[in-house]
Every structure is written in structure tokens, then in C-alpha cells.
Specification:
Two copies of one chain form a homodimer. With about 425 residues, the first copy, chain A, is α/β, with parallel strands linked by helices. Chain A is built from 15 helices and 15 strands. The first copy, chain A, has an eight-stranded mixed beta sheet with strand order 9-8-10-1-11-14-2-15, sandwiched between helices. In chain A, strands 3, 4, 5, 6 and 7 form a five-stranded antiparallel beta sheet that branches. In chain A, strands 12-13 form a two-stranded antiparallel sheet. The first copy, chain A, is globular and about 65 Å long. The interface between A and B is medium-sized, with 24 and 40 residues.
């Protein structure tokens, strides 16, 4: 017995006036999602706990069966690990954005027009060449990942994650001053290093040819780096050890790849999988079918739906759900449904109106042999909430799947 | 107000191909169970937590309102207490099986053909006569309980429960070597004692007249004792004290009797109640009605359904559910439904296919005055999951029942 867990990032939504008070999932054409709901057992799921808006990192930790509230140690390290930066215990890592500010450091675009990977790479290369003032043995790594996303890692003795963000996380607000979050000398030192880097980055970016070119092409210049989520690598029991399984991850988003790598899952690279709405859904579907041949458990993650939600692009979100549906159609047609469980959920609700992660629960459906299928016939937030799983938490999902594939141990006699 | 909690051991199942993808509960004739569902409030319940396959001991602890994850201290002590062995704090007890092995110690039958109580008693009598080598002041008690089940208690100073099982829990596998599970001298000593006993037991059993007779009759000889679940008595707040109630237990299975005795419930012996599929269901029904006259709370446990599931005997499981239904019919007709709550559940799901305890939830229905009855009209895994209780945990049940009978205290003002 094997299991696939499909996560549509931010796929769940709230009812929208623009859709006659329906959600994107409710109006999308989705025969495969409906097939999974109809043949399976459905429910509503709080990724972490009711009302709490999770990040994609904390939600994915929970969906993999970890107690995110206990093990989470900041976003930065996951992003860095997931983008292939070699991160060591003690390193402090930040999630960064290429962004656009005006001369008063007021944020005009938190994603510098979702800058292309190509432009971001050239800029990152220049930033990595900067020299840090010699105040300790600290050094840094800066790496762009997908579009506007990047990772910054500070390495050295005596660092701390108690450092505030420079990213105000809102357009129209001024870049925040980076401050130590406690009185320790480590927090003070780390703050100084990050502040110095941010200043030097800004100088380089302001006059960089790539940005001059972007302005000529009418694109917002990536004239600042915003950082947030100082973190270290958390210590978790590796997934293969925890459940006695082989496990693989198919995801393009660095953050998710990072979580899966920390859980010691195999990261499978898929050509054309980009973590953007232009990602190659079919390539991911094929990779999943392939990965199932050599793994007990495969996590298939699609970032695109969250991107559309953060942009408030309802039409695109619906189209992307339909592409996820096509992807699932391929998976359903190419796996052995007599020996494979297929679960589909979202890591969180992203409202296309507030454009933020929200604490509303997400739909969950599990199909496969021996599930207690229920009356639910459609896959969406409201239909699934009537299902036989009732209301579960993200952390419950992995034990439920592992129980179905026979990988749980009896407690007691 | 009084309450009866009826537990059908392993009564819940998964949908079975053999039953047109229905469960034994779904196909059984069960007017009384349905009456309870129809007049009551229903739900789906995780005995411990979603996906976790419980033992009958941990599940019963949870159903009595205890935090099994915290208080559980191994099966052996419950089994010993429940079979009437006087067990003291510090004693280390094991659950044992009379089993059949070949000359290479490969297990052929983990239950020696579900050996009769009569044969097992004779063998146990011989085993109790063995003398332990004098390496400490340790002594032992060996007692058969029902069929192939037995308890072994080691008494003496400086013992430990950190001792592995000899029972491989699988037919076709070799008997496991007993090992200390930590470095302590106590674990080493206990291991030595158990190993010595297992060896001496084997010598006696190999050439025992009862076994020679069994072989002649074409029955598997009980030529070895397998042990598992080293445990001590856990410290829990007695149930009568916890809720201010008088409480009784009607169960034949030693393991359940042990849990109830540790909770300081009254153990009621019922003539003809055997813990087997041949148990006298009506005698148990009558004893329950009787016990309600002098107790606020009565636990009525039926082992038989679990036995059929472990044997993969679907037809028998259905018949036994129907017998439980008849038993409940008597109870319903002979208690005052205006002042008595009746709850029916299973302690865990036992799959008739995997023949193991599984982590799927179990149905729960509670009838009685003032319950918020729902639309559910049938008592089974899927119908109950649509009920008004939604999804609860085993530990929630006792507070819910105690609240209904007015035995909970207000928290706050």
C-alpha cells in the first residue's frame, strides 16, 4: 500500500461576491477532484488549529505529522535549505524578497513585479560579491530561488534568530528598521550584520544595469532586498524513520522543498516545475506516478494557486484549480487504485479578497481501498465539511494515511 | 440518573469487498442498536487519536476518561490483575500466550488452536511448580486466564519493565530472544529470570501428557509460552473518586477486568461469560440490569467480536454483532429509559482483512433523556459519523456521560 498527498497551496478560499458567493473551488470545473471526493472520505481540516492562519511552512510541517507549534524555528532556514543552500546547524537564515521602493523607502511592490528568474539571478550574483566588515568571523550566502524569492544565510559563531524583519509585508508602508528582539550580544551582532548587508545590497541594486534595463522596459526595478523570518534548521525526527517509509517530495517552491528536506524526504526535480502559474502540471503528474514506484509516500505540492490568491486574481485561481484537476486526472488514471491512497487538500485558505492566508479550515478528501466513503460528491470547502472525516487537524492527516497503508504501530495490547 | 457503557471489542471494521464494500455492522440485523442510534445522539470517535491503532487496554483506559498516553504502563499488569493474580506495586507482569512452535522455534500457531481452558489449566498447574534458580529473592506466578491467554508475574526487589517480548506476534516467524531494553541492572536481572522461566516452561510443555493427548486428537500442542507487554500497575485516580460515582464492570476478558480493577470499579462475575464467541450474552444483559440497581455506572464489555475479527471470520463477526444486539434488546427493555443513559461503542476498529487493530475511528451512540438526538437512524461506522456528536476522542466520552448523569463539576463561576 502506498499514499500520495496532493497539496494545492492556498487553494481553499472564502465565498466571493464576484462568484455569486461561491468559492473558486466551488465554481471550477473539476471532474477528478469530484471523483476523489465521491469515491473517498471527506472532511474539513484545520491545518494547525481553528482560526489560526498558517504559513505554508508551518502547515506543511503539520501535514507531515509534526507539531509545528513546537518544532517551528522560522521560515528562513526552510527557504534556504529548499533552494539548495547548504545550511548548517547554527546558521541563521532569512527569507528575502526582491522588492521595489521609492526614494523614501516606501514599498511600491513587494515582489518587484514578480521579477524573472533571469534578472534575479544576475542581481543575486552581484550581491554575493559584497564584502562584510570584519567584526566577527561571520560570512553570508545570498541566493535567489523563484522569481522575487531569495534566501540569505548568515554563518558564524554566536548568532541569533532574535532579529526583526525589514519587510513590512504591506505595500505603501516604509521598510522596517531591523532590530534585535532580545538583549543578547548574539542578537545585537546578527542585527548589525543584517543591517550592514541590507544597506550594501541597496547601494548595489540602486545603480545595477539590470534595474536600469527594467525601468527602460517599464518594469519595476528590484531596488531593495526585504528580509524576514530569521530561522535555524529545526530538529525533527526524519519522516522515513518516524513511519518506516520511503518518502519523496515533488515541489518547486523552495520553502516546501526545505521543509521536506529537513524531514529527510527525497527531493525530486521536475523539469518545467517552476512554482509559478506557468508550471508544468503534467510533468509533475508524471513525476508523481514515477516516484510512487520507488516510494511509499509522495507529497505533490502546487504553489500556483497561492500565487493567484495573493494577487487577488480570481479568474486565474479558478483556471489553476482546473489545471490541478487535469493533473489529478493523469494521476488517477496511472496509479493502481487498488493499492494506493490519494489525499487532496490545501495547506491553508488564502482569501482572494484580503489576499492573505486566513485561518479558515481547508477541504480534505482521501480515496483508496477500504476507506469508509461517504455521501460527499464534490470537492470543495463546503461539500467536504459534510463528510465522514468530520473536522480533523493537519497533524492528524499523516497518522490517518499511515494507518491506511499499514505503517502505524499499535499502542497497547 | 445512571449510565451504561457498552463496548463491543473490535466491533468496528472497514468496508469489505466480501460484503459489497459494507462493514459487518452495516450488514448485520440490529434493531436495538438502530433504536439507540435513532433515539440518541451519534458520532465518530478516535479511541486515542486519529490514525493510532489502540490496544484494548489503552482504549479502555481512554474510554474510562484517563489519558492513556500518560498513564499506560504495559499490558502485562492489567492481564494479571484481571485474571485474579494478586499484583503488588513493583511486580513486573507479562501477558502470555500458550502457542505452538516447530523444532526450530518457528511459530506455527500463536494461540495453540485457541486451547481450551481445561487443557490450559492443567498445563499452567505444572508450570507453576517450576523452581527458579536462586539469583535473587525473585519468585513468579503463572496463571492461565481464557483459552490461550495467561499472565506471568515476577515479584522481587529491583525488577524492571524494560524487557523485550519473546512473542514475535506473527505466525511463521521465530520466537524472539528476550533482551533488556536499557542498561540497568534491574532490566538485566528481570531478563535473566524471564529467559530462565521461558526455557524451563518449554521443557515441561514439550513432554507434557496434555500435549501428547492433544497431538493424538489432532490438535496443535501448546508447546511454548510466548510473553509480551512487560508492565506494572499504573497509578490512576480511582473512577469512583474521580466522578463521585459507584461503578461496576461486567467483562470476562482479563485485560479489561484488569483495567477496571485498577480503576477501582467493582468486578462482577457472570456465570457463562467467557470472553469467547460462545459467551452467554443474555447472562451479561441480566447482570447489567441487576448491576444498575446498585451502581451509577456500569461498563459492559464483549470480547467476542474482536476474536472473530482476528480470525478473519466475517460471518461470525456479523452473527456476534446480532447477538450483541439481542443483548442490548434485553437491556433496553429492562432499564428505566427515563433515568438511564445507554452508550454503545467499540474500543477500536479491527479489520477482518488485515486481522489487526486499526486506527480508524469507531461509531458512538448515546441514548437517554435530554440528549440532543440527531437524524442518524442506523448504528454503524458511516451512519454514526453524520451524527450530532461529530468527531470526539475516547477520553471525551466519560465526561460527556458523567455530565448527562449530573456528576461533573462546574469549572469557573
Amino acid at each position: 500500500m502506498k499514499a500520495v498527498l496532493v497539496i494545492g497551496d492556498g487553494m481553499a478560499d472564502r465565498p466571493l461576491k464576484e462568484l455569486g458567493w461561491k468559492t473558486p473551488l466551488e465554481v471550477a470545473r473539476k471532474p477528478s477532484l469530484n471523483q476523489i471526493a465521491e469515491t473517498g472520505i471527506c472532511g474539513t481540516m484545520d491545518p494547525i488549529s481553528p482560526g489560526l492562519p498558517p504559513g505554508s511552512d508551518t502547515a506543511t510541517l503539520a501535514l507531515l505529522g509534526y507539531d509545528a507549534l513546537k518544532v517551528y524555528s522560522g521560515r528562513g532556514a526552510f527557504e534556504a535549505v529548499g533552494s539548495g543552500v547548504d545550511i548548517l546547524p547554527g546558521d541563521v537564515a532569512f527569507r528575502c524578497n526582491f522588492a521595489t521602493v521609492d526614494e523614501n523607502l516606501v514599498v511600491l511592490d513587494r515582489r518587484a513585479g514578480r521579477i524573472s528568474n533571469e534578472d534575479a539571478s544576475k542581481l543575486a550574483e552581484s550581491l554575493q560579491k559584497i564584502k562584510l566588515a570584519r567584526r566577527s568571523d561571520a560570512e553570508f550566502l545570498f541566493k535567489n530561488t523563484i522569481q522575487h524569492r531569495a534566501a540569505l544565510v548568515i554563518r558564524g559563531p554566536k548568532l541569533s534568530t532574535a532579529v526583526s524583519d525589514s519587510d513590512p509585508e504591506k505595500v505603501g508602508e516604509k521598510v522596517s528598521e531591523i532590530k534585535p528582539l532580545d538583549e543578547s550580544p548574539e542578537a545585537k551582532l546578527t542585527t548589525e550584520i543584517v543591517k550592514e548587508l541590507m544597506q550594501k545590497f541597496r547601494e548595489v541594486l540602486k545603480q545595477h544595469p539590470v534595474n536600469n534595463e527594467r525601468v527602460k522596459r517599464g518594469l519595476p526595478p528590484a531596488n531593495i532586498i526585504l528580509c524576514r523570518g530569521a530561522g535555524t534548521i529545526p530538529k525533527v525526527k526524519p519522516l522515513p524513520e518516524k513511519y518506516g517509509i520511503t518518502a519523496a517530495c515533488i515541489a518547486a517552491a523552495s520553502l516546501i522543498r526545505g521543509v521536506c528536506k529537513v524531514a529527510e524526504m527525497r527531493l525530486i526535480d521536475v523539469e518545467g516545475a517552476t512554482g509559478t502559474p506557468q508550471t508544468d502540471f503534467m510533468a509533475k503528474a508524471k513525476a508523481t506516478v514515477q516516484a510512487l514506484k520507488t516510494n511509499d509516500f509522495v507529497l505533490l505540492h502546487v504553489k500556483a494557486t497561492d500565487v493567484a490568491s495573493h494577487d487577488g486574481n480570481i479568474k486565474q485561481k479558478i483556471e489553476l484549480i482546473e489545471k490541478i484537476d487535469d493533473m489529478l486526472g493523469y494521476v488517477l488514471n496511472n496509479i493502481d487504485l487498488g493499492s494506493t491512497y490519494l489525499a487532496v487538500t490545501a495547506d491553508h485558505t488564502t482569501s482572494s479578497i484580503t489576499r492573505n492566508h486566513e485561518g479558515d479550515p481547508v477541504p480534505i478528501a482521501i480515496t483508496g481501498p477500504y476507506v469508509r466513503s461517504d455521501d460527499v460528491e464534490e470537492y470543495d470547502e463546503r461539500a467536504c465539511a459534510k463528510g465522514g472525516l468530520n473536522r480533523i487537524r493537519g497533524r492528524d492527516l499523516m497518522p490517518i494515511l499511515m494507518n491506511l497503508i499499514g505503517k502505524t504501530k499499535k499502542f497497547g495490547a
